[in-house]
Amino acid sequence: MIVLRKYATIFSISLAERLTYRTDFFLGTLIRFMPIVTTIFLWGAIFAGSDRTRIAGFTSDEIIAYYLLIMVSRAFSSMPGLASGIAFDIREGNIKKYLTQPIDMLGFLLTSRIAHKLVYYSIASVPFAIVFFLCREFFPGWPPPTVLAAYVISLALAFVIGFLFEALLGVLGFWMLEISSLLWVVNTLNYLLNGHMFPLDLVPGPLGVLIRLLPFQYMAYFPAMLFLRGAEMSTMELALAVGGELLCAVALWVAVRYLFARGVRHYSAFGG
Known about the structure:
The chain has helices at 2-19, 22-32, 35-50, 60-77, 82-92, 96-100, 105-134, 145-171, 180-193, 205-213, 221-229, 235-266. The chain is mostly helical.
């Protein structure tokens, strides 16, 4: 009970802090949808130039729907500043407060990010609803209830995977004095390989198979495709697909916990 009260307090404080910037959340979310206008014209031109009704299995409407859903996925899995913040705390010695007090650093950060996402979506739901209403013609309709349930679960797991992936990069700060260059490289790869830049179906052959074995797809591509194509899957196939995402989350959790424990033993405090 003491542990639950401790994290409930952290959650409520983080919630109040995030609510301070609700107008920024609203405007920032609305502006993030502006590139979809360029995307609509771009893919319209691609389909017109190719004289094809389908590219990599997508119709022109499905491509637009895909990019809209990618924005939802990324809103769940994106963790700006998490890895760099962890590395900074390690480098500057701020991590000592987590080592000397009965507060787990990863638990504290996870609770804070949950509060952040709840505030974000409670405020961003309005611009999201407006954009999706205006673009409703690109969607074939709502998927079946089982698919919708799998989609919601996949978004929750995308949040967990996004958090753990950034935390994994952050704890490398125990061994690396500066990780900004590494973060730039990894985040660039993430942008390319999570399906944000283009549908992974466009990558043919063994390379496409390899990309789908990496955790990147679960941060954007997988939830979007589950919404679009989940109706074509059986209940067992849906369960196995979501189970693969869950397995990825568990593997990342074990890796982060292991590296953090090793890092603490390796740690020497610097700074104030």
